[in-house]
Design brief:
Elements lengths: L1 E5 L7 H7 L3 H8 L3 E6 L3 E11 L2 E9 L8 H12 L5 E7 L2 H9 L3 E6 L2 H5 L5 E2 L2 E2 L3 E6 L2
Length: 146
């Protein structure tokens, strides 16, 4: 298993990112300024994009794992890699929909709920967003601190 940084032609990996964020326009807003990492285990199985928001403050903008490889530890491996990679990190935020599977994943990785962005999904997407059969309305932000 190998995790490596992608520095050019990031859009070549857009299909996997779209699994976690259906809007290419939203992805375009952070993709170029963010750092992209792929997890390769006999082929790309997962990827993520992280941005630096302030000194020591980062945000995980997107993390996606191919559906056939869910619950095999790939997402958690990427998160653990980011904790080590961002050596100056005082806080790592991630925003997600208010659904059990996503929230429990991040909590199992050591994140704690921080705050909410009311109506984020209804205000920023041109169609209703669903996860686990539930319409997403608010963005739930979680925070990890070393």
């Amino acid at each position: 298993m190998d995790i490596r940084k992608i520095t050019d032609r990031k859009k070549n990996y857009i299909d996997l990112l779209l699994l976690a964020d259906e809007s290419e326009n939203m992805i375009d807003e952070y993709l170029e300024r963010g750092e992209m990492f792929i997890l390769d285990d006999n082929g790309v199985k997962a990827e993520c994009v992280i941005t630096q928001e302030d000194d020591g403050v980062y945000e995980l903008k997107n993390i996606a794992v191919l559906p056939d490889y869910w619950r095999k530890g790939y997402g958690k491996k990427l998160i653990q890699f980011l904790f080590a990679y961002c050596s100056d990190c005082s806080a790592l935020f991630v925003g997600t929909g208010d659904c059990y599977s996503a929230l429990s994943f991040y909590k199992n990785c050591g994140f704690k709920e921080s705050h909410r962005a009311k109506n984020f999904f209804t205000d920023h997407y041109d169609h209703p967003m669903f996860e686990d059969g539930v319409q997403l309305v608010d963005m739930v932000y979680l925070k990890w601190e070393p």
